[in-house]
Amino acid sequence: MEPMTMSPDNIAVDAIRPGLEFLYAASAQLADPIQIGQTADGMRRIIPILSGMVEGPGIRGHILGGGSDWQLLRPDGVTVADATYAIETDDGAVIQIRNRGLRHGPADVMARLAAGEPVDPSAYYFRTVPEFIAPVGPYEWLNSSIFICSGARYFDSIRLWVWRVT
């Protein structure tokens, strides 16, 4: 069966297909998790974000300390990430980011990840949708686009790759 190339209203699907434009790669150091414990909707914990770097063709700077990821481990094994933090660009702009998404994979892979073992990020699903709040100026374009992110979790750090949906 061939993929549909026309939408029901005769618009060429390829003509409206979103593209991706690489924005940056980020790495951040994380503190030990703060366990909240079991709640009605699953296990909750807080992961403090200590510091990090952001580098790419669209933006360069560092991650400011003081942010955190308020995580929920659902009963179905899916981790829901909800991180809020800020970056300071090399030219002095401070940009707030709220990054929400999901991480899951085969039970054995997730157990290795939870134990702090190195795991190839292609072995599990880790996708988020960062939302930016940028001040008026050279980065305000961040306020008017949709972004997606792929992530990799390590024992005490995280790596993120962010694209703008065009």
Automatic annotation (TrEMBL):
**Which branch of life, at top level?**
Bacteria
Q: What Pfam families does the record tag this protein with?
A: DUF3237
- What residue range is the signal peptide? none
Q: Which residues form a coiled coil?
A: none
Membrane-spanning regions, if any?
none
Among InterPro entries, the record links this protein to: UPF0311
Q: Which PANTHER family match?
A: UPF0311 PROTEIN BLR7842 (PTHR37315:SF1)
Would you identify the family this protein belongs to, as annotated?
Belongs to the UPF0311 family.
Q: What is this protein called?
A: UPF0311 protein MBESOW_P3451
Task: Say which species the protein is native to.
Answer: Sphingobium xenophagum
